[in-house]
Every structure is written in C-alpha cells, then in structure tokens.
Specification:
The chain is α+β, with helices and mostly antiparallel strands. The protein contains three helices and three strands, in the order βααββα. It has helices spanning 10-15, 25-34, 58-78, and strands at residues 7-9, 39-41, 49-52.
Length: 79
C-alpha cells in the first residue's frame, strides 16, 4: 500500500482490518448502505461497486492515511 486512492472495494476495505470498519465484505457493504457512502461502479470482472475515500468515517480515513504514510517512510528508509 503506497498511496491513498479515491475509491476502494468492500473486499479491499475488509482486508485492511481498519479500526471502525467491519472485516467482512458483506458487513462493509451493509455499513456503506446504512451510512449512504458515495459509490461508483467497479471496473473489471465481477462488477460491483467501489466506495469513495471521502465517504468513509473520518477516523478510518485518518488511520488509513497514517498507515500509508508509515509504509512510505519505511520504504524510504529501506532504500
């Protein structure tokens, strides 16, 4: 994970084990529907939707940004 993206699938969000988000695709989709997250059709086989980073809860966005920043720093140090 090297950079924040504008959209993530339910599978990706569940797999990241982010505090405040469910860890299954089904529960992520249920939470997204309940909280009316902005979504767009997902390209690729299987279809589905991707959810906007901006629609995620603030605490989740901040944690994800910190996690990616730490990864970037660790990569930079390792080089």
């Amino acid at each position: 994970m090297n950079a924040l993206r504008a959209y993530y699938s339910a599978r990706e969000l569940a797999a990241m084990n982010l505090p405040g988000l469910p860890t299954t695709r089904r529960r992520v989709r249920e939470m997204a529907a309940r909280e009316n997250w902005q979504e767009r059709p997902r390209n690729g086989s299987g279809g589905g939707v991707e959810y906007s980073l901006a629609a995620l809860p603030t605490s989740v966005r901040l944690y994800l940004a910190q996690k990616i920043r730490r990864s970037q720093i660790e990569t930079h140090i390792a080089v």
